Amino acid sequence: MAPGPNPYTPMTTSPTTAANPPGSVPHDNAAHAPDAPAHLAHHFDTPQQQSETGKLGMWVFLATEILMFGGLFCGYAIYRGNHPDVFEYAHRFLNWKLGAINTVILLTSSMTMAWAVLAAAMGQRKLLTLLLTLTIGGRVGFLVVKYFEYSAKFASGLKPGAYNACYDFKTANEMLGLKGDDAITAEQQRYHIYNLDNHYLGKYGIHFTVPPAYLKAQFGYHEHHGDVHTETHATAAHPDVTTANNHANTHAGKTATTHTETPDLIPLPSREGLGEGRSPNDSHHTTTATNTNQLTTEPSPSPSQKASGELVAAPQASTTLPASATTPEIAIHRSSIALPAQSPTGLHPAVLRNTALLKHSAFRPHPVVTFEQLPDPARARVHIFYQLYYMMTGLHVLHVVIGMGLLTWVLIKAARGVFNRGYFNPVDNVGLYWHLVDLIWIFLFPLLYLIH
Amino acid sequence: MSATPTEHTAGEPDEAHHPHITPIKILLGVYAALIGLTAITVAVTQVDLGPLNIWPALLIAAAKAAVVAAFYMHLKYENPFFGQILICAFFFVALFIGIALLDTREYAETMHPPTLTSASP
Known about the structure:
Strand content of chain A: under 5%
Shape of chain A: elongated
Largest interface: A-B, 86 and 72 residues
Structural class of chain B: mainly alpha
Number of strands of chain B: 0
Shape of chain B: flat
Oligomer: heterodimer
Number of helices of chain A: 16
Number of strands of chain A: 2
Radius of gyration of chain A: 36 Å
Radius of gyration of chain B: 22 Å
Structural class of chain A: mainly alpha
Distance between the termini of chain A: 66 Å
Strand order of the largest sheet of chain A: 1-2
Number of helices of chain B: 4
Strand content of chain B: under 5%
Helix content of chain A: 40-55%
Distance between the termini of chain B: 63 Å
């Protein structure tokens, strides 16, 4: 633009009279043409550009609305995938006929809205007003039906409530088919998980120190076995590899004596096969044992720390680890963990495969609530379905109400004759919003009401 | 939308502002199609297809959505960019739900198959 006075000077004269007020910067004259519509904002060149820009903004907003409801649909998908029969059972309490009536009401309201946009484009003000009123009336009807539905449900106790999930997790033994002597106890699982935590996190320099009292409560350790648990993080501060050999054997001796006193614990693997990879410094056991409940982090793991990862896998270390077991090139990758040899009280090799799952399965006690365990009135309260139901339909109802507010605003403007053939952008955009609300209901109806 | 001014003159409100107006016949036809598809949805869900139960209803719902978007929301006659925005949004929702379901399947093996009756101890 040619340099000149501020191009954003507000128009002091009516755009329909002045083409180029003196002192203004020459630009496209659409906004100043004698027959330019009054609604054309100054920053747009043509009314078409203005309406398309408005529509673009509305479409981008609709995309965000789709994503918002998409989150709820994702929750629905996951819970229905996990509890298909719960959903099928619970939805019987929904009246699908009322849902179908609501669908028809919404579709009709959608049609009258599209017709209203048509009427606005044709400049038919009375028809536009009528159709907007009908659209709002349709929404009111929808809300009335919803009110009946919700009140009926609350009366019969179908509320979103406390019972969230009825997951019946398999135990590790069930998953792996371990029976009898092979079966691992819960305590063995806990110990194993604890060691794995330190192993996997140890790669990142995170080592847990656990107070002996806690260990005793959880794993049945005794205080004088404190060195057993500190082994898992003993290498935290010891990058000194050269002294490793001296300590390795001493350490092995210690572990050997430890395990004879706690036979129900998983025996720690012997150190002989590890070579120089380990550098536990015995003198540090006492100091680290005093660091209770601390999470120590290192900037980067040293080679000895990496080798400490073989803690759990070591019984076969002498056969599976390469001769260069002390080199830093050992990558402790989950798949490269050698499985321990099976012992009467040891871990089944297959357990290591599912360690991540073990953490979340039978490891934690959880009450399994089945329908047979629920008392009769509560049996009808399949809360997980209704939590989703109320969330999704409730959010949808909120959108309907907001749409009603917008439509009322547009209706008032239409009744006052603000819109004409050239300008009905608000009708258009509110229509887009309303059609999206209808779209969402089109998906909600079969997913919630028509599960068979 | 780009800021370049179009070549339309400002003096013709109808053509320049809305080159296309959906005729009432199309609107009513779409309405009839939507009601019909709703009836088909209800009918289809009475038939038990096992694990595929959800798909006919979803596909019909997608067809209804496409019809609403194309005609009621005027996408068929609009700047194609608007339709692309809509498709983009649906794609990301599908990606979201798809990957979340992959995760669900991962831990599904840790659970007993969900039943209404109590599982074996």
